[in-house]
Amino acid sequence: MYLYVARPDYPNDEAKEPFADVPDLLQVAFGRPTFVMHLELHETRKLARVSVLHVLDALTTKGYFMQLPPEGLINPNATAPEGLRGA
């Protein structure tokens, strides 16, 4: 699962909790979050699977954008760490 979080104070936001805007039920559903990288988004940036305008709209209205991996990308019968790299 990929979760983009709106962080308007970047790079001056290290003291803030990056996942504070994510609803508690969603945090419980996807487990312990791990920060991976800052990603600068603007209207002309291309993203692989979704329109950047859709992401920017979600960040503005909800404070986060969640993207699930495509169906069948992760083998549910695989032993760790396949599909769990970095977790």
TrEMBL record:
It comes from Acinetobacter puyangensis. InterPro entries: YcgL-like_sf, YcgL_dom. Residues 1-78 form the YcgL domain. It holds the Pfam family YcgL. This is YcgL domain-containing protein. Gene3D superfamilies: YcgL domain (3.10.510.20). Transmembrane segments: none annotated. Coiled coil: none annotated.
